[in-house]
């Protein structure tokens, strides 16, 4: 790809970012449409994050945001979408004149992936693993897709779990902390933690606990070559499961459309991700 003075800089910002397939996916889409832009991954710190955002956007660029900066991105977004305001998490930033526009494309992407995985089955109760921005998006996505559904949240930190349940209640989502060892049946498990990014990571939910829940579906927002350990454990127990590649493509396509104002070549983006995860 030839870089010119006119080339727009797009980036994924977070820590870590080296594992991400977002640059590969977006650059495939940019190339397919012949756009003058390049997409890179930028690792940064909490202290440097706000100035990095302002600098990239001032140069006509745009950003996707991943852990742990989705909350900080939401604080910078003005105007912020309803999804950003509800979740307190933002994963897409682009310039709106002199302002910073923000969107949470995770919400519709998670809802779509969960619907496809459940294949018409309804969710009455979901278990969300984690309490960060992705977990908030997952809880809201479930509530939007299946009004009245309850959410259980699992956190390694009791206080964070309680805070998450209070936040969910403020958004009209019935939520309580999941007690370890509970055999309460759920219809969907969503892993919204980063566990699974590394082969040596422990399972975000032990295989025995997963089987005891009787969940008909597991959605892991992490993705990996082949599959994540959580997806492998679920499938071994006879539970339909998918990793986060579908969510990655769906949220990325929605972000691409915000960046360029044209329909995203979704098939190109999906093919790039699938090819990379087969290697």
Throw out a few tags for this protein.
5-stranded mixed beta sheet, Rossmann fold, 6-stranded parallel beta sheet, 18% strand, 279 residues, 2 domains
Summarize the structure in short.
This protein is an alpha/beta fold and 279 residues long. The chain is built from 11 helices and 11 strands. It folds into 2 domains: 8-104 and 248-278, Rossmann fold (3-Layer(aba) Sandwich); 107-243, Rossmann fold.
Write structural notes for this entry.
With 279 residues, this protein is of the alpha/beta class. The chain folds into two domains: 8-104 and 248-278, Leucine Dehydrogenase, chain A, domain 1 (Rossmann fold, 3-Layer(aba) Sandwich); 107-243, 3-Layer(aba) Sandwich (Rossmann fold). The chain is 42% helix and 18% strand. The chain is built from eleven helices and eleven strands. The chain has helices at residues 22-33, 49-58, 70-76, 82-87, 106-118, 133-145, 158-170, 207-213, 229-236, 245-260, 266-278, and strands at residues 8-14, 37-43, 62-65, 92-96, 99-103, 125-129, 150-154, 175-177, 188-191, 218-220, 241-242. It has a six-stranded parallel sheet with strand order 8-7-6-9-10-11, sandwiched between helices. The chain has a five-stranded mixed sheet with strand order 2-1-3-4-5, sandwiched between helices. Strand 1, helix 1 (22-33) and strand 2 form a beta-alpha-beta unit. Helix 5 (106-118) runs antiparallel to helix 10 and helix 10 packs antiparallel against helix 11 (266-278). The protein is globular. The two termini are 22 Å apart.
């Amino acid at each position: 790809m030839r870089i010119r003075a006119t080339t727009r800089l797009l980036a994924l910002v977070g820590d870590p970012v080296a594992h991400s397939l977002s640059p590969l996916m977006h650059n495939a889409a940019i190339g397919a449409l012949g756009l003058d832009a390049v997409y890179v991954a930028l690792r940064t710190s909490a202290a440097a994050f706000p100035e990095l955002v302002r600098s990239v956007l001032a140069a006509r660029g745009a950003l996707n945001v991943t852990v742990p900066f989705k909350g900080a991105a939401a604080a910078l977004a003005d105007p912020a979408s309803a999804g950003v305001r509800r979740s307190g998490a933002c994963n897409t930033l682009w310039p709106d004149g002199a302002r910073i526009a923000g969107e949470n494309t995770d919400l519709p992407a998670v809802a779509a992936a969960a619907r496809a995985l459940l294949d018409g089955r309804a969710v009455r109760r979901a278990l969300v693993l984690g309490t960060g921005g992705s977990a908030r998006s997952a809880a809201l996505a479930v509530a939007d897709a299946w009004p009245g559904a309850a959410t259980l949240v699992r956190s390694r930190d009791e206080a964070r779990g309680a805070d998450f349940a209070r936040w969910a209640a403020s958004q009209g989502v019935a939520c309580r902390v999941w007690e370890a060892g509970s055999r309460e049946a759920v219809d969907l498990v969503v892993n919204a933690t980063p566990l699974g990014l590394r082969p040596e990571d422990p399972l975000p939910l032990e295989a025995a606990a997963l089987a005891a829940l009787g969940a008909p579906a597991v959605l892991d927002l992490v993705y990996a070559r082949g599959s994540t350990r959580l997806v492998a454990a679920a499938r071994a127990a006879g539970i339909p499961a998918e990793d986060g590649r579908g969510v990655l493509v769906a949220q990325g396509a929605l972000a691409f459309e915000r960046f360029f104002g044209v329909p995203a070549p979704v098939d190109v983006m999906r093919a790039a991700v699938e090819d990379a995860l087969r290697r």
